[in-house]
Amino acid sequence: MWKIQWQDKKELSLARQIFLSLRERILAGQLAAGERMPSTRELAGSLGVSRNTVCEAYDMLLAEGFTVSRQGAPTRIARDVCLDYRSAGVATAPVKPEADRLLWDFATGRPDVTLFPWKLWSKMLGEAACQLSPGQWGYSSPKGYELLCGEIARWLLRSRGMLVEPADVFITAGATQAFYLLAGLLHKTGAPFVLESPSHPAMYTVITDRGYPVQWLEVDEQGAMIDTLTESAVSAVYVTPSHQFPLGGILPAGRRAALIRLARDNDFYIIEDDYDGEFRYAGPAISPLYSLDASHVIYVGTFSKTLFPALRLGFVILPKPLQEKWRHYRKYMDVQNPVLEQAALTAFLRTRAMDKHIRRMRRCYGEKRSCFLQAVQKHFADSVCPWGDASGLHVALQFPGAEFGERFVEESRAAGLGIRPVNRLCPSLHKQHRDKLLLGYGHLNAGKIQEGMSVLRRLMERGDYGYVTRGS
Amino acid sequence: MWKIQWQDKKELSLARQIFLSLRERILAGQLAAGERMPSTRELAGSLGVSRNTVCEAYDMLLAEGFTVSRQGAPTRIARDVCLDYRSAGVATAPVKPEADRLLWDFATGRPDVTLFPWKLWSKMLGEAACQLSPGQWGYSSPKGYELLCGEIARWLLRSRGMLVEPADVFITAGATQAFYLLAGLLHKTGAPFVLESPSHPAMYTVITDRGYPVQWLEVDEQGAMIDTLTESAVSAVYVTPSHQFPLGGILPAGRRAALIRLARDNDFYIIEDDYDGEFRYAGPAISPLYSLDASHVIYVGTFSKTLFPALRLGFVILPKPLQEKWRHYRKYMDVQNPVLEQAALTAFLRTRAMDKHIRRMRRCYGEKRSCFLQAVQKHFADSVCPWGDASGLHVALQFPGAEFGERFVEESRAAGLGIRPVNRLCPSLHKQHRDKLLLGYGHLNAGKIQEGMSVLRRLMERGDYGYVTRGS
Ligand SMILES: Cc1ncc(COP(=O)(O)O)c(C=O)c1O
Ligand SMILES: Cc1ncc(COP(=O)(O)O)c(C=O)c1O
Q1: Chain centroid to CA B222: how far?
Q2: CA A448 to CA B468: how far, in whole Å?
Q3: How far is the CA of B121 from the CAs of A92, A348, B37, B115, B446, in angstroms?
Q4: Among A441-450, B40-49, B396-405, which is the least confidently predicted range?
Q5: What pLDDT, on the 0 to 100 scale, is given for residue B247?
Q6: Boundaries of each HTH gntR-type domain copy (chains A, B) (predicted)?
Q7: Which phi and psi angles does A87 have, rounded to 5°?
Q8: Ligand nearest to the CA of A203
Q9: What is the pTM of this model?
Q10: What domains lie within chain B, and their CATH numbers?
Q11: CB-CB: which of A65, A168, A339 is closest to B252?
């Protein structure tokens, strides 16, 4: 009865093994309520362990109420602790197979992290760790590290000419968290959220997960077609005016003004997602919608593209009427961002290491882009039309006459290519973008880009997607 | 008309200032649609800047569609870009007054971060930064850093005897994020969440924010009174069995078994919040409810108390049926935790620096606790009864006959004392804990603890809270 099942777990102390073994018997009802436990001396002798070890195990049983002990009397099994115990959660789960390896993965939204100044970043992390005060390692504000908010405001001024109060800058775990919180904050019963089609799936998903209605805004070469927006009762409008994701248009001033007028007349907020505004090759940065009317635009920024995605740092410039609710929801969602990266990013911005890094990356992405466009030219001549190549880390390629669906995805994967058709990002019924592919090149080197494009060409020649190759 | 308003902002390039100034005039309608812009040479001359500077500003206007330009023809103002522009968001917000300074802040949930091995942690952060591969700085899994999940499973085995599969460990931004996600995952229409009263406000807040019903479970010296749970249709039950927060009871085995039986019979999950199980002074760690039935218990752990709160790292051991949904919601909530701290924590656990730190802190908190209890004894003799002093970083003090409300909070704050009455954490109508105060001492040194208690005594002597002082 008192035999202990020794486990093959070196991590477990003998005392705990004894405890676990006895507890299992008590739970299973093999040791019944009121039953007397053997003395510690007795059990230690029979198990060949020290008496201290057994005492420790008995203390655990007693502390958790599996046994009762009254001064002088022997320890007994407590009442009502029997359970039809099944050992659960110990079985090994099937290990998920590793994502199939793609040789040429043209995924979007991936910066080239190999060129990030890791040494400098480590140094700044180390310095930040030394400089933070004990209070700052505790819970602080759901708004974010105040010095970082100030540096972000200064960075927005010098990089985009934005006039922003640090008091309105709220730090987030990436743009994704901003969208998540905004979906909850901006929803008005019965009024749809208006999203670009195609667009990034994050905003669409959080809105439909909550059961809120969505209305689509079609997109052309210049971005969202604002004049098709007829609904006046709207929860909010989500746009990417500096570089439409994924088709690359820059929203022209006329459409910007029209959108702001609509927002004012119908009293809704515009969510401006400026996810890669830094990487514009053909001229200076586009100034944001926010600058036109800070009271109707919620500007969302992220450091995922400029630094790296696993940093999970972004921010939102929040109109004052939303700030109190935001604080509440953020506090009970995850309290705040970790402090260390916030402090390091503060130094990265303050010392202008950011500016230098952006300049360098803009040059480097510009070269990758030329390489990419040359490869497109080589393999497809003028039969293919690149959209949105003036900025960012990706391009949409239009193959006139083609129609890309699941079969393309499967066949390209089988060939080692990772490429998404644009219409994967159009949950609306209008499928006018089915002749376009989306290719991210920011994280790839020239060799990969060139190889990948020649593989794509072979695939296009081989497969019948309705497009006739005309490359050299 | 073409006069530029130079700003006193050294951060802004001349070109951008020209651009901003012209844009403002266009938006305000002062420069009308179709109007011809001056030539770059002309404007440069009149402003006394280089022609390149003006060209740059013109490029910005053109890129954003404020102007149009056809080969050979002069640049003109675009149509439809006028806006009744008001400069918004530039006003300075009233700065929030700093939280009033408390001289003796007995807040709960604050570890003593001054004793954390910062040097070692910085080293581990630095090493982690060097070891992570480029792929790991990109977006990865919403589950968390796999090596960390493995180390957490090993840590739970050696510290609490828990058998956990790494595949079931999901990393979170603290326990708070786990509660937030679980509220959404576990809700069944019409079925209340059952919470301890009193309890930590996080779970209560996220549930009521979503409009879900709550049912209260009263708490006595031993923790939640499970036998008062009569409802059978329940969304989930939230408990703190290892150390009831805030009253400190250890849930006895009989109540544990009863709770598990209820969960099995009525098919609901139990959320086990083990927020400070490491710091038990009177014996070995309490083994968790999870070990009794891993298929009905969701175990939530956090590193906020063992390391520091601004780390924002915790975890949940998730039953398989919930894992897919969890991945989905986490992915669109904030994608994942930052990777660096996860990698450093992996090393902290792997090298057993964690075990050493916990041993040291347990000793240190044990001393603070003795100091605290001695001060209580000195000032209040046996007239005051400490609850839950066998573990954790806080104690609830019962002042028989007293009744603590808003007046106490105000008067103690005025005296420089930060102390919460327990009934602030009882949103239920039963106010049987109104004679108790909650005092966290983990972050305070002996001097602060002693001074604070003598201030409290003077306050209790002075104020009339229904309690008669009997200290020495
Ligand atoms: C258009 C767009 N917005 C937002 C994001 C979200 O970025 P994060 O949450 O990493 O800041 C992305 C990421 O790829 C994106 O492409
Ligand atoms: C009982 C209890 N649970 C959970 C938490 C949340 O901790 P975190 O979100 O920092 O992990 C706390 C914090 O004080 C707490 O007291």
Answers
A1: 27
A2: 80
A3: 33, 21, 60, 12, 26
A4: B40-49
A5: 95
A6: 12-80
A7: -70, 115
A8: 1
A9: 0.85
A10: 14-77 (1.10.10.10), 104-109+356-462 (3.90.1150.10), 117-354 (3.40.640.10)
A11: A65
